[in-house]
Design brief:
This protein is 56% helix and 0% strand. With 282 residues, it is an all-alpha fold. The longest helix has 22 residues, at 73-94.
Amino acid sequence: YTWQKKILKNALVGEKKASDGLNFFIKNGLNDYKEGRNFPSQDNVSKLAPNLHFGEISPNQIWYTVSKLENTQNTDHFLSELGWREFSNHLLYHFPHIISENLQKKFNNFPWLNDENALIKWQKGMTGIPFVDAGMRELWQTGSMHNRLRMVVGSFLVKNLLIDWKYGAKWFWNCLFDADIANNTAGWQWIAGCGADAAPYFRVFNPVTQSEKFDKLGTYIKKYVPELSLLPNNIIFTPWLADQSTLKNANIKLGKDYPLPIVDYTFSRERALKAFKRIGNN
């Protein structure tokens, strides 16, 4: 119950709070939405997904409120994201089986590894990849996760660990405060490459370059993976490359205070590309 109370304490529950949340976002986050939404330590996302899911505010209310504002690349991009949300509902309505089945049937014979130990480490945020672990710990601690991280951790599970997207979708469904069956399903099928508008098989998010680009100061990592907070910024994204002196100064013993990577990114990426390419040729 402590976990639940902590999440609900910061939740915007109710119609009034949802409306206030929209107004706050318009005043404080919308002006830099197109670019700012990519940085997990910044406050440029609406955080209205739970309110939409529970019917405390409607897509129409948001759409028409934002449409009345000056038209910019930021308002256009925000409205397009709202449109993608509705597209997910469209998919679920017309293809209800996608909750538990691949939309693209050629993925039914995909050679998943489904390593249970690797799955548990991913769930706990103990993969040894700081950006991935930060995202997974944010999910567990807050019941939410920044969208950039949803793509990164999803890609890591499906493509680097070769674990079926359904396991990821189930974990998100159990943990997300904004868990929505249409969005959750469509999002995971997109990541896996088996959905209607899916990421191409060769798109494998590199969690190191993603963190270097979107968390340049390591602010997000330090918040959710505090055991790495004393590492210098040039090594916090890849602690396994740090020399012993740097690790000692940061009070870290790899394998004890923080895990070594559970998989090599380059090797696992090539392994995934070969597997996905075989599916594409079938």
